[in-house]
Amino acid sequence: MAKSKIVHFVRHCKPQKHERGYTLDFLTPEGITHAELVAKRFAKKTIIISSPYNRTLETACKLKEKLDSRIIENSNWGEISMGIYTSKPYSDFLENWGKENNSFDYIPPKGESVNNGRKRILQGVKELLSLKNDEIICVTHASIIANLRMMVEGISFESAKPKYGEGFTLCINKEDLSIFNLSCKSGVKIKDLDNYLNNQGHEEI
């Protein structure tokens, strides 16, 4: 039995945009074609975990068709909710977040804080350990991938944010429960992230 799990995190492919600039929850024709190409990077039969949003499920379905695999929806990999700002230009959210000193504990109306989103992400990582598969694809969102990389690698959001159809590969060691980015070997233990998020909740790790 393998001592570690390999998880390929993939941002959904290109979605349509509202004229006001915010994201709509389905792919463009270009995004659908791109998803078919993304599938070529992965092995057949690899299980796919997907955020429940339409744009991630559409991407996952295209991967499923090419990989002869199956999809499991998991809400832990859903977008960090901006609440009332979801259907407004992103600049509106940034303006109001700035008034709160860009605190990771700031909760937008009807939304969730970055730190609460990070707790969801960590729960999602733990649930991956319960799967029997040693190689997994997780189709999710830019903010989820970026925040996971920020926690694991200590890099900035902009550095960690992937383009459409791109992402990174994470290794989860099943013996010492550490997680690290395969490309740079930077990592952290799950229990340390747990302690940080539950006891401190500040912006930096």
Give descriptors for this structure.
alpha/beta, seven-stranded mixed sheet, 205 residues, two-stranded antiparallel ribbon, 37% helix, Rossmann fold
Describe the protein's topology.
Blueprint (H helix, E strand, L loop, with lengths): L3 E8 L3 E3 L5 E5 L1 H10 L8 E4 L3 H14 L3 E3 L16 H10 L14 H16 L5 E6 L1 H12 L3 H4 L6 E7 L4 E4 L5 E3 H10 L6
Parallel strand pairs: 1-6, 4-5, 4-6
Antiparallel strand pairs: 1-7, 2-3, 7-8, 8-9
Helix pairs in contact: 1-2, 4-7
Short description:
By secondary structure, the chain is α/β, with parallel strands linked by helices. It has a single domain, classed as Rossmann fold, CATH 3.40.50.
Please provide a written account of the structure:
This protein is of the alpha/beta class and 205 residues long. The strands form 2 sheets. It has a 7-stranded mixed sheet. Helix 4 packs antiparallel against helix 7 (190-199). Helix 2 (54-67) links the parallel strand 4 and strand 5. The longest helix is centred in the middle third of the chain and has 16 residues, at 114-129. It has a single domain (4-199), classed as Rossmann fold (3-Layer(aba) Sandwich). It has helices at 29-38, 54-67, 90-99, 114-129, 142-153, 157-160, 190-199; strands at 4-11, 15-17, 23-27, 47-50, 71-73, 135-140, 167-173, 178-181, 187-189.
